[in-house]
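Fold it.
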Amino acid sequence: MYKMGMIGLLLASLWACDREQPIETRIKENPSTFCNPLNLDYRFMKIDGGDGIREAADPAVVRYKDKYLLFASKSSGYWYSSDFHSWTHVVIPDSVLPIEDYAPAIMVHDDYVYYVGSTHGKGMLYRSNQPELGKWEKVKEIWSYWDPAFYIEGDKLTRWRN
């Protein structure tokens, strides 16, 4: 009896999959989620063998004052936007911020944006209160990990290791 029920369920599933029906798409007037690709001018990277890939992995976004800041791996900088539609790219040399690191962690705390990149061992913690101008300062050397993150405990800024 169990086998007959399972066969019937399988046949009904196959019959339903075989029917062509139009897919209806609905977009909320005020969406609460967003997905890539955003209209960003991110780089094209050549890899061995001549093939290429677009590079902007591990995106992280925070709201800072009246703007969104978007950081991604290997992007020669980061972007800011006031509407999450039009983005301005801030080019940062590696001498100012290790922007070419993978999987950056960013966080807003006490009117500053904090940044650390993925690394094995010690890394530098940076902060800025003028990120749209590309002005960053070193805070202190900290232990950093691959795919780092931050959290606030009370009023204390703490690293999170995963």
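Helices lie at 2-18.
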